[in-house]
Amino acid sequence: MNKNIFKLLIAFLIVAGTIKNTDAQKRRTLDTPSTVIYALPQTVLKVDVIAKKTILKKGPFADYAQKYLGISDIVKANGTSWQLISAELTGKGEVDPQQFHKIVTSVDYEPSLVSLTPEGLIRGFNLKNNRSEDIEREEIVLSKDDVNIEYGKFSIDPIIKYKEDTIYKVVETDTAFVKVPVLEKQALTKSLEEKAEEAAHEIFKLRKRRFKILTANYEVLPPDGKAYQIIVDELAKLENEYLSLFIGKKVSVHKSFQFSYVPKKGENGGVIFRMSPQNGPVDVSDLGGRPIRIDFKNRNTTEELTILPTAGTDPQKQIKYRISGMADVTISNGKSTLLKKRMPIAQFGKIVSMPAEVLLNENYAIEFYPDLGSIKNVSK
């Protein structure tokens, strides 16, 4: 505990005792005792994970990439892959279900001077400015994961071809029936290989046009360098779209996940989430993913702290608060360390108390860290 805060707190208790009788006469005595219940926090570790999802889409002409373009490095099957990008670790104070306490009114003080968070965590006593609490809002980012590769979207040639066949019609004459040859045009859908051949032909045409522009091999050229750049970029973009029909597409999107873990004394950690090849970061119960562990080492910073005895004191006239501990927290993926951080853990510390008579003097205020339950400030 900070020595200056401790000295100020002792001085405050002494002053409170000297003015006890005067203040008690000024206060209104309640006929029926009332009670304020508050909670001390426990630290919940929040791990925010960014993972990259890569979507693989096979092109419709993948089987003809080697034949018409001489390309073998292609996407051979549809699929999905995941990769961990980053992990951030923070501590959030939440109500400790084992640490609910209450203060009962007396002749000298009233618990209405106690300030709490909306969750019931202790904020302080005699705080004149009750600042509004920040409200956490969940942000949902919608992303479209579909990868569409369609030949008809890029083709400048019809996907239907026409074939002329000779058929014979029987024509009646004056003396006999005669077979007369007639040409008939039939509409046929092009085969997949024919479409692939046309697409490959368009790729080579685009390359030739880009080459001729870059070598100024046209009678009419773009008027300036900017126009040159636009034309070249658009030709390259169109060529890449045609190429994707053969080599496929890889589209990556980043997704955010959050996982929580409550450290407990006497344990070293555990699995916080799993990494699935198909679904990315998943819950611990999904055994299809490899485990991502969180481990912590208690620094025992409050182990030697001497606590003043409170035997024989009514616990309902004691104000409980925490002196938080410290721990080294590590997040690992197998033998690889993703993150290491030293941070305060409320439940690794100790619970101490002060007499409720500190509420006597309204000129003094005590403020706590709501996320840790420890004293932040004693002010006048």
Concise overview:
This protein is α+β, with helices and mostly antiparallel strands. It is 21% helix and 42% strand. Strand 5 (160-172) and strand 6 form a beta hairpin.
Radius of gyration: 38 Å
Q: If you average the pLDDT, what whole number results?
A: 78
Please outline the major beta sheet.
5 strands, antiparallel
User: Oligomeric state of the chains?
Assistant: single chain
Helix content: 10-25%
Uncertain residue segments: 11-30, 132-143
What's the β-strand tally? 14
| Topology pattern, helix = H, strand = E | HHEHEEEHEEHHEEEEEEEE
Class by SSE composition: alpha+beta
Q: Give the helix tally.
A: 6
Query: What is the molecular shape?
Result: elongated
N-to-C CA distance: 19 Å
In terms of DSSP E residues, the strand content is 35-45%
Strand order of the largest sheet: 9-8-10-11-12
Description:
- This protein starts with a helix and ends with a strand.
- It has six helices and 14 strands.
- 21% of the residues lie in helices and 42% in strands.
- Strands 9-8-10-11-12 form a five-stranded antiparallel beta sheet, with no helix packed on it.
- It is elongated and about 130 Å long.
- A hairpin with a 3-residue loop joins strand 8 (269-276) and strand 9.
- The longest helix has 23 residues, at 192-214.
- By secondary structure, the protein is an alpha+beta fold.
